Amino acid sequence: MSSRLLPLPRRAARRQTAWPLHGPRSIFTKGLRDSRRSILLAGLGMGFLTLLLGMILSLQFPTAADRQQIVAEMRMLPAAISGLLGEPINIDRLGGFMSWRYGNFMPIMFGIWSVLALSGTLAGEARGGSLEVLAGAPVSRRRIALEKIAVHVVALAGAVTVIALGAWLSGQAFATIPADAIAIGDALAHFAGVALFGLVGGALAFGLGPLLGRAAAGGIALATLITAYLVNAYAGVIPAFDQVQGLSWFAWSADQRPLAGRWDAVSLIPIGILVVALFAVGMLQLFFFSFAILIIALAAAALVNGVAAEERERRLELLLSTPVSRARLTIANGVGLFGAIAVVTLVIAASVAAGAAASGDDPVQPFLGTWVSGLYAAGLAGVGLAVIGLGAIDLGAPTTAALALGFFLWDFIGSALRLPPEWLDLTLTRHLGRPMIGTYDWPGMLLLAIMAVGGLLVAAWGMRRRDVSA
User: Fold this and answer.
1) What are 390-419's pLDDT values in tens digits?
2) 3-state DSSP call for residue 434?
3) What pLDDT band is residue 142 in, cutting at 50, 70 and 90?
4) 351/353 Cα distance (integer angstroms)
5) In 3-state terms, what secondary structure has residue 433?
6) Kind and range of the H or E element at 152?
7) How far is 124 from 213, CA to CA, in rounded Å?
8) Which residue has the higher pLDDT, 461 or 239?
9) Where are the domains of the chain?
10) Is the Cβ–Cβ distance between 452 and 381 less than 8 Å?
């Protein structure tokens, strides 16, 4: 009876934890554990194809003379088929035939896997608010994004290793001529490049996911992946494709075929840069609200510059030849400026809402939350208008831009350096709440409204003083 009251064994206790977020490594380790089936299925599936191809080739074309027959037959294939398979490089040996028969199409398989894995990696969490929960742990958002990307990259590496081992074993078991032997290094290099081709599609889906939603991002990424493949495949047949072949990343590294004995590893560098750039775009989308307020605020600075131009270039004097006071015209220009900020905000808010709806999420809250960025821009624009009204015409737009960049950089760099909260609270961006998930800082909203309206009134007062002094 007393034995039932004993504490659970450690192993059982661990099972009950169900992978809680105890530390920075949990995001990566849990994701990797969840991906183990995908790694095995992809690796063993495509690895089995390499073994099967080696067996078929050794049985049907065992001698060097038989291999020449393959070369002759492949040259007779119609362009519609040969284009899809790519250039037949050294197909009279097992590695060359393997890279030609399956290797050229494997990027599509890797690409589909990457798109499915990465298109919704962060989009749902960013809109559903679970990303905020993760970010509440002692892990930065950038760390969260990097670890989630690392999960898929490691999964690809695992699958590549299994496939490369399959190719190497195929060369060991089914080689019938000396050239059939496949070095493990060549196999790893070849399939790593193939996986990188496919990863471009996944990185594109990752970048578009938080903005457009999983469905739209995945569809666009898959369409782009397949289009890039077909453009490169049929560039020699369709003149229109030949004109744009250089846009296809498949064309950039067409000579990197280590299994066939041809190396061009340097050509993989621009593809790697493209992948990193697309992932960076996706990470920027994680901080969408932070960047949205920066973008709209900088747009507001440009609009403030337009108001200043009327005074700087003396166009205001021409307008004042009509029975309209300088103060009244300043208020009209300010209202127009706020209207322009509203239009910019509306376009961005509508795009965010459309992305949320496409992914099956509630579009209302992201739409409303984006308007806080417009209020923030209006507040900074009010400061710029006040500066113009007080006589510093050339400093109005720079002041708005400097505040926008200064607050953004202070918040961004300060968070990275883990500055004390009281220091970080000096930025206006820390007094907006988390509007994308429905949390608003109402005192901060009131302050922004006062800055916008008060700045405009100060500008009108300053312009009225000029009328009086004149």
Assistant:
1) 888 888 888 888 898 888 778 777 776 778
2) strand
3) low
4) 5
5) strand
6) helix 141-174
7) 8
8) 461
9) 19-286, 288-469
10) yes
